[in-house]
Design brief:
By secondary structure, this protein is of the alpha/beta class. The protein has a single domain, classed as HUPs (Rossmann fold, 3-Layer(aba) Sandwich). Helices cover about 45% and strands about 20% of the residues. It contains seven helices and seven strands. Strands 3-2-1-4-5 form a five-stranded parallel beta sheet, with helices on both faces. Helix 5 links the parallel strand 4 and strand 5. The longest helix has 18 residues. The mean pLDDT is about 95.
């Protein structure tokens, strides 16, 4: 089965690769999404190379990002705007890339992005694809030690960790609009996988 993992270079999407390889007879390609605002996608490419994961870049329409930032600016916070963005990216992706499965690293404890069951079913029914979020039933407390046993991970404040997630381009577009991203995003930590700790642990 042709499987696309939406890949940020973080521990969650990295672990999804290994997990799916173990349970599914699938051919995985990692796709990092960019809207062309910056070149942060290269950090995911570096992680994919270090982990020996197949990697491709998916250029999404800048209008999707524009609408997401519109939503965030109106709401005054980022959660719903990021979830909107994720749903729009998945729907755009499955219309342009022919795969059997599209997977991501969204977790049970994530506030955003997070698709609800109705969204998952609608995407599957409308686009004849299987949506898989294998970490949706796993808490961060359980997932963190698993990932740290597998990977070498760099952690720190979000503005200091170079990562290829939606947040970096959202913030980049906000700054181009003259907005201060710190007014919409609370301080939080981020992580990025930089290699294997134990290549054969799983």
């Amino acid at each position: 089965m042709e499987t696309a993992v939406l890949f940020s270079g973080g521990k969650d999407s990295s672990f999804v690769n290994i997990f799916l390889k173990k349970i599914l007879p699938c051919n995985i390609i990692n796709y990092t999404v960019t809207f062309g605002v910056n070149s942060n996608w290269k950090y995911a490419e570096e992680t994919a190379k270090a982990l020996e994961f197949p990697f491709k870049l998916f250029l999404a329409d800048l209008e999707i990002l524009e609408r997401s930032v519109d939503r965030i600016e109106k709401d005054g916070f980022a959660n719903d705007g990021i979830t909107f963005l994720h749903k729009a990216v998945i729907e755009t992706f499955v219309q342009e890339i022919n795969v059997d499965i599209v997977a991501d690293g969204t977790r049970r404890d994530d506030r955003s992005p997070k698709l609800d069951l109705a969204d998952m079913r609608r995407i599957e029914d409308m686009y004849d694809v299987s949506y898989v979020a294998p970490l949706m039933g796993i808490s961060y407390r359980i997932l963190k030690p698993i990932c740290f046993s597998l990977f070498t991970i760099k952690e720190g404040p979000t503005d200091l960790i170079k990562k290829s997630d939606y947040e970096s381009e959202i913030k980049g577009l906000m700054e181009k609009r003259g907005l201060n991203p710190n007014d919409f995003f609370p301080k939080h930590s981020q992580s990025r996988v930089i290699g294997y700790r134990d290549r054969d642990a799983f």
